[in-house]
């Protein structure tokens, strides 16, 4: 399954992202998790996110670049969700399988 982690704080401002997500949502074996929709209060359900990660064979992070970084909610997600027991290992330049 392909997991798309979508983190756009102002999705209504991005027509391109809207169209890409609409098209991706029509594909088989694609799950889209819109972080700002799921967690507007930034209270991430870590267990639910880890479950989604464990089902994925490919993870795509879709987000705008903000000052050469990711939006705040995605940064929080990256700090809290990945865990070694998921088969992920952290390394200097990101997360690897």
UniProtKB/TrEMBL annotation:
Known Pfam families for this protein?
Answer: Flavodoxin_2
What molecular function terms (GO) are annotated for this protein? Answer: electron transfer activity; FMN binding; NAD(P)H dehydrogenase (quinone) activity
Q: Which SUPFAM superfamilies match?
A: Flavoproteins (SSF52218)
Keyword list, A-Z:
Oxidoreductase
InterPro entries in UniProt = Flavodoxin_fold (IPR003680), Flavoprotein-like_sf (IPR029039), KefG/KefF (IPR046980)
Domain (Flavodoxin-like fold): residue spans on this chain: 2-83
Per its record, how is this protein called by name? NAD(P)H oxidoreductase
**What would be the name of the gene that encodes this protein?**
yabF_2
């Amino acid at each position: 399954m392909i997991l798309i982690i979508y983190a756009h704080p102002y999705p209504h401002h991005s027509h391109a992202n809207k169209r890409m997500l609409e098209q991706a949502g029509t594909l088989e074996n694609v799950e889209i998790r819109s972080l700002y929709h799921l967690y507007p209060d930034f209270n991430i359900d870590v267990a639910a996110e880890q479950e989604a990660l464990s089902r994925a064979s490919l993870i795509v992070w879709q987000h705008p670049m903000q000052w050469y970084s990711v939006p705040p909610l995605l940064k929080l997600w990256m700090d809290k969700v990945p865990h070694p027991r998921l088969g992920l290992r952290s390394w200097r330049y990101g997360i690897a399988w």
